Amino acid sequence: MKVKMCGMKDLLSAKVAEEAGAEFIGFVFWQRSHRYIEPEHAAVICSQLRQSLKVGVFVDEPLENVNEIVHLADLDFVQLHGHENAEYARKIECPVIKAYRYGENFDAAAANKFPAEIILVDAFRPGEPGGTGACFDWRAAAEEIKSIRKPVLIAGGIHTGNVREVQRIFHPYGVDVSGSLEVNREKSISKIQAFMRKVRSLPRGRRHYAGQSSHSGSDARP
Ligand SMILES: O=C(O)c1ccccc1NCC(=O)[C@H](O)[C@H](O)COP(=O)(O)O
């Protein structure tokens, strides 16, 4: 099961996450988030990452800004976390992760059709596009999420104490985690390391049922 650690704001945390084995490192380019990072700062951090895939998180951002940051920071993926449509996504100049919020806009049929490499399912909290620390109703969502024919990242309120349950219910391609890695809104080195230790200690169950694509292999690169 792959791990995306999101909301990195400093080089040390990003490097520790990479060294601990996180396959995806996320940077939030939505200015209203406390995890917002200036694109130039993110570009410096990205230039120091060797193995992890670099993901830029955007919320209804003008397309030209997104593509400018893709090239500035040499992003591997853009994560669309707002209400961006398919036409917008097709114009992004790198592979796309499309986020849906269970309880708001989640629709497995729409996810299957959306021009995205990976689908992320997050919790819905009105007025907060993401990074809420809330879980969605995993059991209620499980059957519908099973019908997604692409790699799926499960997000929302995941921590060392519940990631085993996420694996048991979904057997997802990966999990996305942010808030539980923080102390006083800053990433904690020990929490990053503890989360990766926990994930690596999980029994290797059956593989993800949806989206057995090239992303399910050991190399997550597009
Ligand atoms: O993290 C944010 O502040 C954020 C703001 C706006 C849109 C998306 C955002 N985060 C996207 C992520 O991929 C988070 O990791 C995901 O929502 C899970 O966060 P958490 O519940 O804190 O683990």
TrEMBL record:
It holds the Pfam family PRAI. Residues 3-197 form the N-(5'phosphoribosyl) anthranilate isomerase (PRAI) domain. One of its GO terms (molecular function) is phosphoribosylanthranilate isomerase activity. CDD domains: PRAI (cd00405). Keywords: Amino-acid biosynthesis, Aromatic amino acid biosynthesis, Isomerase, Tryptophan biosynthesis. It catalyses: N-(5-phospho-beta-D-ribosyl)anthranilate = 1-(2-carboxyphenylamino)-1-deoxy-D-ribulose 5-phosphate. HAMAP family: PRAI. Belongs to the TrpF family. This is N-(5'-phosphoribosyl)anthranilate isomerase. It comes from Selenomonas montiformis.
